[in-house]
Protein backbone atom coordinates (compact mmCIF):
# COMPACT_ATOMS: atom_id res chain seq x y z
CA UNK A 1 0.00 0.00 0.00
CA UNK A 2 2.77 2.44 0.95
CA UNK A 3 4.65 1.58 -2.25
CA UNK A 4 1.54 2.29 -4.36
CA UNK A 5 0.98 5.59 -2.56
CA UNK A 6 4.62 6.59 -3.15
CA UNK A 7 4.24 5.78 -6.85
CA UNK A 8 1.03 7.82 -7.03
CA UNK A 9 2.71 10.82 -5.41
CA UNK A 10 5.64 10.50 -7.85
CA UNK A 11 3.24 10.17 -10.78
CA UNK A 12 1.21 13.24 -9.82
CA UNK A 13 4.40 15.25 -9.27
CA UNK A 14 5.06 15.02 -13.01
CA UNK A 15 3.53 17.45 -15.48
CA UNK A 16 2.45 14.51 -17.66
CA UNK A 17 1.00 12.68 -14.66
CA UNK A 18 -1.34 15.55 -13.80
CA UNK A 19 -2.21 15.98 -17.49
CA UNK A 20 -3.29 12.31 -17.82
CA UNK A 21 -5.39 12.53 -14.65
CA UNK A 22 -7.20 15.70 -15.80
CA UNK A 23 -7.56 14.23 -19.30
CA UNK A 24 -9.35 11.28 -17.71
CA UNK A 25 -11.73 13.73 -15.98
CA UNK A 26 -12.27 15.55 -19.28
CA UNK A 27 -13.27 12.52 -21.35
CA UNK A 28 -15.19 10.68 -18.64
CA UNK A 29 -17.32 13.83 -18.22
CA UNK A 30 -17.80 13.97 -22.03
CA UNK A 31 -19.20 10.43 -21.99
CA UNK A 32 -21.37 11.21 -18.94
CA UNK A 33 -22.76 14.29 -20.70
CA UNK A 34 -23.59 12.25 -23.81
CA UNK A 35 -25.26 9.50 -21.76
CA UNK A 36 -27.38 11.81 -19.60
CA UNK A 37 -28.12 14.61 -22.08
CA UNK A 38 -31.72 13.54 -22.85
CA UNK A 39 -32.74 11.91 -19.55
CA UNK A 40 -31.08 14.22 -17.00
CA UNK A 41 -30.15 17.51 -18.73
CA UNK A 42 -29.29 19.27 -15.45
CA UNK A 43 -26.70 16.64 -14.47
CA UNK A 44 -25.50 16.46 -18.08
CA UNK A 45 -24.82 20.21 -18.03
CA UNK A 46 -22.71 19.82 -14.89
CA UNK A 47 -20.71 17.11 -16.66
CA UNK A 48 -20.30 19.44 -19.65
CA UNK A 49 -19.01 22.20 -17.37
CA UNK A 50 -16.51 19.74 -15.89
CA UNK A 51 -15.37 18.72 -19.37
CA UNK A 52 -14.84 22.34 -20.46
CA UNK A 53 -13.05 23.27 -17.22
CA UNK A 54 -10.78 20.21 -17.50
CA UNK A 55 -9.91 21.01 -21.12
CA UNK A 56 -9.05 24.63 -20.31
CA UNK A 57 -7.01 23.68 -17.24
CA UNK A 58 -4.98 21.21 -19.32
CA UNK A 59 -4.18 23.96 -21.82
CA UNK A 60 -3.02 26.28 -19.03
CA UNK A 61 -0.89 23.56 -17.48
CA UNK A 62 0.78 22.85 -20.83
CA UNK A 63 2.19 26.39 -21.07
CA UNK A 64 5.71 26.25 -22.51
CA UNK A 65 5.32 22.57 -23.39
CA UNK A 66 6.32 23.22 -27.02
CA UNK A 67 9.92 23.78 -25.83
CA UNK A 68 10.22 20.11 -24.84
CA UNK A 69 10.41 19.30 -28.55
CA UNK A 70 13.96 20.64 -28.61
CA UNK A 71 15.03 18.17 -25.91
CA UNK A 72 13.31 15.33 -27.76
CA UNK A 73 15.28 16.19 -30.90
CA UNK A 74 18.53 16.30 -28.94
CA UNK A 75 17.86 12.81 -27.51
CA UNK A 76 17.51 11.49 -31.07
CA UNK A 77 20.93 12.77 -32.13
CA UNK A 78 22.49 9.28 -32.07
CA UNK A 79 19.82 7.52 -34.16
CA UNK A 80 19.89 6.70 -37.88
CA UNK A 81 19.36 9.47 -40.47
CA UNK A 82 15.89 8.18 -41.35
CA UNK A 83 14.85 8.11 -37.68
CA UNK A 84 16.33 11.58 -37.20
CA UNK A 85 14.18 12.88 -40.06
CA UNK A 86 11.05 11.25 -38.62
CA UNK A 87 11.91 12.70 -35.20
CA UNK A 88 12.28 16.21 -36.67
CA UNK A 89 8.95 16.00 -38.51
CA UNK A 90 7.11 14.45 -35.56
CA UNK A 91 8.43 16.89 -32.98
CA UNK A 92 7.95 19.87 -35.33
CA UNK A 93 4.28 18.95 -35.68
CA UNK A 94 3.92 18.56 -31.92
CA UNK A 95 5.66 21.90 -31.30
CA UNK A 96 3.21 23.63 -33.66
CA UNK A 97 0.38 21.94 -31.77
CA UNK A 98 1.51 23.09 -28.33
CA UNK A 99 2.54 26.57 -29.50
CA UNK A 100 -0.81 27.46 -31.11
CA UNK A 101 -2.65 25.74 -28.27
CA UNK A 102 -1.53 28.69 -26.11
CA UNK A 103 -3.41 31.12 -28.37
CA UNK A 104 -6.44 28.82 -28.44
CA UNK A 105 -6.51 28.84 -24.65
CA UNK A 106 -6.33 32.62 -24.25
CA UNK A 107 -8.92 33.08 -27.02
CA UNK A 108 -11.35 30.73 -25.29
CA UNK A 109 -11.02 32.50 -21.95
CA UNK A 110 -11.64 35.86 -23.65
CA UNK A 111 -8.20 37.47 -23.42
CA UNK A 112 -7.91 37.44 -27.23
CA UNK A 113 -10.76 37.82 -29.67
CA UNK A 114 -12.91 34.65 -29.25
CA UNK A 115 -13.28 34.57 -33.05
CA UNK A 116 -9.62 33.53 -33.25
CA UNK A 117 -10.32 30.33 -31.32
CA UNK A 118 -11.56 28.35 -34.33
CA UNK A 119 -8.55 29.31 -36.47
CA UNK A 120 -6.06 28.59 -33.67
CA UNK A 121 -7.79 25.28 -33.00
CA UNK A 122 -7.45 24.26 -36.66
CA UNK A 123 -3.74 25.16 -36.86
CA UNK A 124 -3.03 23.44 -33.53
CA UNK A 125 -4.93 20.28 -34.54
CA UNK A 126 -3.23 20.21 -37.96
CA UNK A 127 0.22 20.33 -36.37
CA UNK A 128 -0.89 17.70 -33.86
CA UNK A 129 -2.09 15.35 -36.63
CA UNK A 130 1.13 15.74 -38.63
CA UNK A 131 3.20 15.04 -35.52
CA UNK A 132 1.20 11.95 -34.59
CA UNK A 133 1.46 10.49 -38.10
CA UNK A 134 5.26 10.58 -37.91
CA UNK A 135 5.32 9.37 -34.30
CA UNK A 136 3.19 6.38 -35.34
CA UNK A 137 5.48 5.71 -38.30
CA UNK A 138 8.55 5.82 -36.02
CA UNK A 139 6.97 3.45 -33.51
CA UNK A 140 6.13 0.90 -36.21
CA UNK A 141 9.75 0.97 -37.41
CA UNK A 142 11.16 0.60 -33.88
CA UNK A 143 8.74 -2.21 -32.98
CA UNK A 144 9.75 -4.07 -36.14
CA UNK A 145 13.46 -3.57 -35.37
CA UNK A 146 12.88 -4.82 -31.83
CA UNK A 147 11.21 -8.00 -33.13
CA UNK A 148 14.17 -8.68 -35.44
CA UNK A 149 16.65 -8.08 -32.61
CA UNK A 150 14.68 -10.36 -30.30
CA UNK A 151 14.68 -13.20 -32.87
CA UNK A 152 18.46 -12.88 -33.30
CA UNK A 153 18.94 -12.88 -29.52
CA UNK A 154 16.81 -16.02 -29.11
CA UNK A 155 18.83 -17.78 -31.81
CA UNK A 156 22.13 -16.83 -30.13
CA UNK A 157 21.27 -18.28 -26.71
CA UNK A 158 23.79 -20.80 -25.36
CA UNK A 159 24.65 -22.10 -21.90
CA UNK A 160 27.28 -19.45 -21.15
CA UNK A 161 25.34 -16.40 -22.26
CA UNK A 162 21.79 -17.41 -21.40
CA UNK A 163 21.46 -14.94 -18.50
CA UNK A 164 22.78 -11.92 -20.46
CA UNK A 165 20.71 -12.73 -23.54
CA UNK A 166 17.55 -13.20 -21.48
CA UNK A 167 18.15 -9.78 -19.93
CA UNK A 168 18.46 -8.26 -23.41
CA UNK A 169 15.26 -9.99 -24.53
CA UNK A 170 13.45 -8.73 -21.43
CA UNK A 171 14.49 -5.13 -22.17
CA UNK A 172 13.35 -5.47 -25.79
CA UNK A 173 9.93 -6.74 -24.68
CA UNK A 174 9.48 -4.00 -22.09
CA UNK A 175 10.38 -1.41 -24.74
CA UNK A 176 7.88 -3.00 -27.14
CA UNK A 177 5.06 -2.73 -24.59
CA UNK A 178 5.89 0.96 -24.13
CA UNK A 179 5.95 1.43 -27.92
CA UNK A 180 2.51 -0.17 -28.20
CA UNK A 181 1.20 2.14 -25.48
CA UNK A 182 2.62 5.13 -27.36
CA UNK A 183 1.09 3.80 -30.58
CA UNK A 184 -2.34 3.44 -28.96
CA UNK A 185 -2.16 6.96 -27.50
CA UNK A 186 -1.00 8.53 -30.78
CA UNK A 187 -3.70 6.79 -32.87
CA UNK A 188 -6.36 7.88 -30.36
CA UNK A 189 -5.10 11.48 -30.35
CA UNK A 190 -4.92 11.45 -34.15
CA UNK A 191 -8.64 10.63 -34.26
CA UNK A 192 -9.33 13.58 -31.94
CA UNK A 193 -7.22 15.87 -34.16
CA UNK A 194 -9.02 14.70 -37.34
CA UNK A 195 -12.34 15.52 -35.66
CA UNK A 196 -11.17 19.14 -35.44
CA UNK A 197 -9.53 19.36 -38.89
CA UNK A 198 -12.20 17.56 -40.91
CA UNK A 199 -15.41 17.11 -38.87
CA UNK A 200 -17.24 13.88 -39.67
CA UNK A 201 -19.96 11.76 -38.01
CA UNK A 202 -17.55 9.03 -36.82
CA UNK A 203 -14.65 11.05 -35.38
CA UNK A 204 -16.90 13.76 -33.93
CA UNK A 205 -19.30 11.40 -32.17
CA UNK A 206 -19.15 11.82 -28.39
CA UNK A 207 -18.49 8.10 -27.87
CA UNK A 208 -15.60 8.07 -30.38
CA UNK A 209 -14.05 11.16 -28.82
CA UNK A 210 -14.65 9.92 -25.28
CA UNK A 211 -13.13 6.48 -25.84
CA UNK A 212 -10.21 7.94 -27.83
CA UNK A 213 -9.49 10.43 -25.07
CA UNK A 214 -9.54 7.72 -22.39
CA UNK A 215 -7.33 5.38 -24.45
CA UNK A 216 -4.82 8.21 -24.84
CA UNK A 217 -5.01 9.18 -21.17
CA UNK A 218 -4.66 5.64 -19.81
CA UNK A 219 -1.91 4.63 -22.24
CA UNK A 220 -0.02 7.76 -21.15
CA UNK A 221 -0.80 6.91 -17.52
CA UNK A 222 0.78 3.45 -18.00
CA UNK A 223 3.90 4.90 -19.66
CA UNK A 224 4.41 7.51 -16.92
CA UNK A 225 3.67 5.28 -13.91
CA UNK A 226 6.89 4.86 -11.84
From TrEMBL:
It is a multi-pass membrane protein. Keywords: Membrane, Peroxisome, Peroxisome biogenesis, Transmembrane, Transmembrane helix. One of its GO terms (molecular function) is identical protein binding. The keyword Membrane applies. InterPro entries: PEX11. The chain crosses the membrane at residues 83-100, 120-143. One of its GO terms (cellular component) is peroxisomal membrane. It comes from the Eukaryota. It holds the Pfam family PEX11. GO terms for biological process: peroxisome fission; regulation of peroxisome size. Its main location: membrane. It is found in: Peroxisome membrane. Belongs to the peroxin-11 family. Homooligomer. Interacts with ARC5 and FIS1B on peroxisomes. Involved in peroxisomal proliferation. Promotes peroxisomal duplication, aggregation or elongation without fission. This is Peroxisomal membrane protein 11B. It comes from Lithospermum erythrorhizon.
Amino acid sequence: MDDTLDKLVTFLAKRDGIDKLVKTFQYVSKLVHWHLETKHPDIAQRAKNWEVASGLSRKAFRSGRFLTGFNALRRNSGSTPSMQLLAVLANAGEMVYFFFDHFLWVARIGVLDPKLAKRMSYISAFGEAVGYIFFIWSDFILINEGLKKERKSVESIDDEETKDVKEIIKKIRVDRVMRFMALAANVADLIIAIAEIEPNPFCNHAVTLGISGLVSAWAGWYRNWP
